User: Which sequence fits this backbone?
């Protein structure tokens, strides 16, 4: 009745529906109208072209951070450090964007590559520690997040600027922003980065599924011992996987630096782009297409939710609970899988 | 077996959750009803209210319940709404920002909902507010705590250094260890104004006083505020002035913890922005020595009234200080603020108002001031 493939597609869909349903129940319990609440959410994400543009803007880094987490997971690594890799990518892209004055054909690719390289470097460190010394990547990447956050702040304050809170705006020749897209969407901050993000999803699919290197990476993820026995270098593949994952994350930072903001301000805390990436990857079942779809869902929720307090009187705190519930149900896909399998047995 | 126990725990947790949720709804019933009504109202009234005046504000990441800056602004808008018979959600409203990325979205959204005057609360919103203001020249904007040169933005600033100076005077008179502390939010020119004034005030009383200055690097990290305060109090510091928004709640929490364990311990907090007297209450004691009150609410209300009357001071910088009573030192804690301290503060205040003293507002001015002592 259900094949494995349909179950894999069903689980995220059921998770989202369950999340939305329990969100509705919570809104009801607290005396708010869930129909009006979700209506406001929909309005807030698609109400007019401005909001649509903002949603796309939000989706762009989510796709890339989701890809970063998904890529690592496919190779058996849990990269919690996407957040930090986003930071260094953001920093690198803005630095290149501010420091140089080059024609666009060189400047923009250079800034983007710098971001990817910075992210890859930030992924390389936990990668090599894991490969050579067996240090667990989760611990290293978590710590690296803080190093990235505070180093970035210090560099913004004392190296790029002279005691300012934010860098200057990047040169136009390094900007992904487009007046055409902005005008079409009533000055939303939508930018060309979405094309890069979608292209990268394609790249990830290609690397993992169509190259022998990708086969090795996946095989190390499934079973490092068997892969070793088969003559693959486990440590080389771990380092490579972390670097590719970090490069995706660095690109997510470049989207913010070159597209959305055009500058880097010193931050008091994490942007959450990297952490949301974990949820995006989980919901997207670690596949390229799944990540793109999940990123769209998260972008819609994030931008739409801003409209719920003013549009339907639902307080922001409740909105966050609803979003958290959806993530909860996604993460508990094991539970849903169990129910489906049970249902399947009874159905027979 | 293991599985069943897990299910049982899950079921228990869920039921507890629902019971708690049900309890919550009884207090929230009324307010939530209002929220629902006004929400519907705003969608219906959106078109017809274009001739009526409406005003909204966008918070920074602190939120309208930060017991400080944002809350004070929101109280100002609420007062304005009440005076003019406006409904929340229709005539006045706020948008909460959870991260830096939300600033532009929130401001643009309010513009698109046809608000006539939109406040950006805090200097952190300046880039976002300027960007949106340039795109929407027909809407009026207000920026609190920073100066913008855009035509349709009115900049509202305060002479925080003057109030902080008096807070420094109070701290220096109150301390028994001659060690006082300062907890700042995010480092930047605004909070430096607080710091410079405070240091200058304290050193005017006692040039040898030790002042520990720490920045929490956030306006919304109560945990870090608590940690810093704990370190300071451990190092014999007995008065801490915080200029850190919601981060300061941690400073209060730490002072209250100490006071609870030992009511004879001498620990004081100087609040900021609002009179934070109630934050410091612990049993019969109160750890709030005083507060550097910055009446953002008055400013927000005044500018909104002017704008409603068609008198929007766009492009101007409106500065509030001691003489407007927009900056003051709270005297709510009568036991702690003795006659001596009050009379001393009064005399310094006069000297500032007369122009006998120019209170430093930057690091350089502070250095100059200190060398003149």
Assistant:
């Amino acid at each position: 009745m259900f094949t494995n493939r349909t179950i894999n597609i069903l689980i995220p869909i059921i998770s989202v529906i369950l999340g939305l349903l329990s969100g509705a129940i919570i809104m009801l319990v607290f005396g708010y109208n869930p129909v009006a609440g979700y209506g406001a959410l929909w309005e807030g994400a698609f109400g007019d072209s401005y909001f649509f543009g903002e949603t796309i803007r939000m989706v762009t880094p989510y796709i890339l951070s989701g890809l970063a987490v998904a890529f690592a997971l496919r190779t058996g690594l849990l990269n919690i450090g996407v957040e930090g890799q986003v930071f260094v990518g953001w920093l690198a892209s803005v630095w290149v964007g501010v420091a140089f004055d080059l024609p666009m054909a060189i400047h923009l690719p250079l800034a983007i590559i710098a971001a990817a390289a910075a992210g890859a470097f930030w992924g390389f460190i936990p990668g090599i520690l894991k490969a050579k010394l067996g240090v667990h990547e989760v611990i290293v990447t978590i710590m690296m997040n803080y190093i990235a956050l505070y180093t970035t702040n210090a560099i913004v304050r004392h190296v790029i600027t002279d005691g300012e809170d934010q860098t200057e705006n990047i040169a136009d020749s390094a900007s992904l922003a487009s007046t055409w897209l902005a005008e079409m969407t009533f000055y939303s901050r939508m930018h060309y980065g979405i094309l890069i993000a979608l292209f990268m999803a394609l790249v990830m699919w290609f690397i993992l599924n169509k190259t022998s290197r990708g086969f090795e990476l996946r095989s190390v993820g499934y079973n490092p011992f068997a892969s070793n026995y088969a003559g693959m270098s486990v440590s080389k593949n771990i380092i490579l996987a972390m670097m590719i994952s970090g490069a995706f994350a660095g690109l997510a930072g470049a989207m913010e630096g070159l597209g959305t903001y055009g500058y880097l301000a010193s931050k008091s805390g994490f942007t959450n782009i990297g952490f949301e990436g974990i949820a995006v990857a989980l919901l997207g079942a670690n596949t390229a297409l799944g990540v793109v779809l999940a990123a769209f869902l998260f972008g819609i929720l994030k931008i739409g939710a801003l409209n719920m307090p003013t549009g339907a009187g639902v307080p922001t705190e409740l909105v966050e609970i609803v979003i958290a519930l959806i993530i909860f149900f996604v993460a508990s896909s094991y539970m849903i899988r169990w129910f489906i399998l049970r249902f399947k047995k009874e159905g027979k | 077996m293991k599985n069943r126990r897990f299910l049982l725990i899950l079921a228990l947790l869920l039921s507890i959750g629902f019971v708690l949720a049900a309890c919550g709804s009884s207090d929230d019933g009324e307010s939530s009803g209002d929220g629902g009504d006004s929400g519907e109202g705003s969608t219906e009234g959106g078109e017809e209210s274009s001739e009526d005046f409406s005003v909204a504000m966008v918070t920074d990441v602190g939120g309208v319940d930060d017991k400080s800056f944002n809350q004070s602004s929101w109280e100002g808008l609420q007062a304005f709404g009440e005076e003019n018979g406006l409904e929340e959600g229709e005539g006045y409203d706020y948008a909460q920002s959870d991260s830096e990325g939300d600033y532009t979205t929130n401001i643009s959204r309010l513009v698109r909902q046809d608000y006539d005057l939109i406040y950006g609360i805090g200097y952190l919103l300046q880039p976002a507010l300027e960007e949106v203001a340039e795109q929407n020249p027909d809407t009026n904007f207000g920026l609190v705590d920073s100066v913008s040169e855009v035509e349709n933005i009115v900049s509202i600033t305060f002479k925080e250094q003057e109030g902080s100076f008096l807070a420094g005077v109070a701290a220096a008179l109150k301390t028994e260890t001659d060690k006082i502390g300062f907890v700042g939010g995010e480092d930047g020119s605004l909070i430096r104004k607080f710091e410079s004034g405070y240091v200058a005030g304290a050193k005017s009383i006692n040039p040898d006083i030790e002042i520990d200055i720490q920045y929490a690097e956030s306006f919304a990290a109560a945990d870090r505020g608590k940690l810093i305060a704990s370190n300071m109090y451990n190092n014999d510091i007995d008065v801490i002035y915080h200029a850190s928004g919601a981060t300061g709640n941690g400073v209060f929490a730490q002072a209250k913890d100490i006071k609870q364990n030992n009511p004879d311990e001498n620990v004081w907090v100087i609040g900021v922005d609002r009179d934070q007297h109630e934050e410091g209450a612990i049993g019969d004691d109160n750890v709030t020595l005083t507060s550097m009150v910055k009446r953002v609410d008055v400013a927000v209300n005044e500018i909104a009234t002017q704008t409603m009357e068609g008198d929007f001071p766009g492009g101007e910088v409106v500065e509030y200080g001691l003489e407007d009573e927009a900056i003051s030192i709270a005297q709510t804690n009568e036991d702690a603020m003795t006659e001596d301290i009050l009379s001393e503060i009064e005399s310094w205040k006069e000297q500032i108002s007369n122009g006998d003293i120019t209170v430093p507002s930057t690091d350089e001015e502070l250095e100059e001031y200190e060398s003149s002592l």
Summary: Chain B is about 50% helix and 15% strand.
